[in-house]
Design brief:
Elements (H helix, E strand, L loop, with lengths): L2 H25 L9 E7 L2 E5 L9 E4 L2 E8 L6 E3 L6 E4 L3 E5 L5 E4 L5 E2 L4 E3 L5 E5 L4 E6 L4 E6 L6 E5 L2 E4 L6 E4 L2 E3 L7 E4 L8 E4 L1 E3 L5 H33 L5
Length: about 260
């Protein structure tokens, strides 16, 4: 069968994955601290019928199509929106909150929509702990830009520090593995990680009463999905053309 049919079909499959990725970006435009992703494409192997090893010709090299090489998260800062909720915390700059899953495994997120459990633990919507506990007899909780947590005891007038939120930074955050729920796990390609108080060693600062919005640009993604659809249609035309040429060749013997 003609190489062109396989090449065009690979283009259709690549653009289908591209549309799937763009659709996921658009679907999560309201997800807190969601980071858009993009697909990187690579051309496939080439058929070399004549190598470019002489000065008289550039050789004959026919490509075999395209494939999706990787999906990469874009960790640019999303806009910051005021919520007025004391337990909503946004990160302004680099860094992730470290959480503990029920089995003790650490996971990371930029979603700071926290709340208090019945035991007074500061947890996520799914119940994953931040490692911070608010005593039940304390009110007027304040989270400072440097992550210090201050509150006032019912038996005291002056607030006191009762906890500390730290942030974790990765050398290569694009190497984190998305597991859903605005959560990430580490992988071997994340590089070195460091944990410190917000505002130190290149880490961002915290903003109490705010949440980070998705960094998805709706207009740009709509343009991307139209472009991907056009590319899919052109690849489809390539399959149809190769199929028609094959059909015509098979009819030659009929005279």
């Amino acid at each position: 069968m003609m190489r062109g049919m396989y090449s065009a079909a690979s283009g259709m499959m690549a653009q289908q994955m591209n549309i799937d990725n763009i659709s996921n970006n658009l679907a999560n435009v309201e997800s807190t601290a969601f980071k858009q992703s993009r697909i990187d494409f690579q051309d496939l192997l080439y058929a070399h019928t004549q190598d470019p090893n002489t000065g008289a010709t550039a050789g004959t090299q026919v490509g075999m199509g395209v494939r999706a090489a990787s999906t990469q998260k874009i960790f640019t800062q999303g806009s910051i929106a005021r919520t007025g909720n004391n337990f909503d915390v946004a990160i302004q700059g680099d860094g992730f909150f470290q959480l503990n899953m029920p089995n003790g495994e650490p996971v990371f997120t930029r979603d700071g929509a926290f709340r208090l459990s019945k035991e007074g633990d500061l947890v996520t919507q799914a119940g994953y702990s931040t490692g911070v506990k608010i005593p039940k007899d304390h009110t007027n909780v304040q989270i400072k830009p440097n992550g210090e947590i201050w509150a006032t005891s019912i038996n005291d007038i002056k607030p006191r520090q009762i906890g500390q939120i730290k942030l974790t930074r990765f050398l290569n955050p694009a190497g984190l593995k998305s597991i859903g729920g605005n959560l990430y796990k580490t992988t071997d390609v994340c590089g070195a990680q460091s944990t410190d108080v917000p505002g130190q060693n290149g880490l961002g600062v915290l903003a109490q009463g705010f949440l980070e919005k998705s960094n998805v640009n709706v207009v740009a993604e709509m343009m991307n999905i139209i472009q991907a659809q056009r590319a899919y249609e052109m690849a489809q035309k390539g399959v149809q053309a190769a199929d028609e040429m094959t059909r015509m060749a098979n009819q030659l013997h009929k005279g």
